[in-house]
Amino acid sequence: MSLTAQMIAQRGYHLTNLDDIAEQMDLSKASIYHYFDGKEALVMATLESCATYVEQRLTETAAREGTSAERLENLIRTQIELISVENVDIARLFLQSFDWPPSIGDAVHEWQRRHGRIFREVIHAGIESGEFVVRDERIACMAIQGAMNLVPVWYGNELARGDTKVLDDITASLMRIVIAAG
């Protein structure tokens, strides 16, 4: 993830300015203005890049062959790896309220909807095939996503060290939301 995204995730939108970003990137502020109209444009491009990357990884994961349960399990693992191992700040950018300007806030909301849709489609397919026992796919999706997004807070250090047992346990626990205990 870019330095801009890290700074915003750590400081927030309003406490991050172009001077700080330029300094961290070892650039002049004029260099940033050469490519972007201002902070809002830079932040929007940064967020779009992060959202596109995550959406692409999840879409590829969801498209793999397998049962709905296997596909959802892989989605959960990929999401947790993305936000707990690969880059912890990604989730913070899209989940915390940064009092975004309206154009960024609207875009973030749309990216969140597209992200959720990937999970919902797999959960829906699992309900249709009889693999998942769920009364409300939307609630199941929100429960899984909500828990996944807190994993960096709950288990960050263990996952960052590559503790696959923890990842296996988390994934299995979240799968219980959609699979009836036998």
From TrEMBL:
Keywords: DNA-binding, Transcription, Transcription regulation
GO molecular function, one term: DNA-binding transcription factor activity
Keyword Transcription regulation: yes
Top-rank taxon: Bacteria
Record flagged with keyword Transcription: yes
Residue ranges occupied by any HTH tetR-type domain in the UniProt entry: 1-54
DNA-binding region: 17-36
Record-given protein name: Putative transcriptional regulator
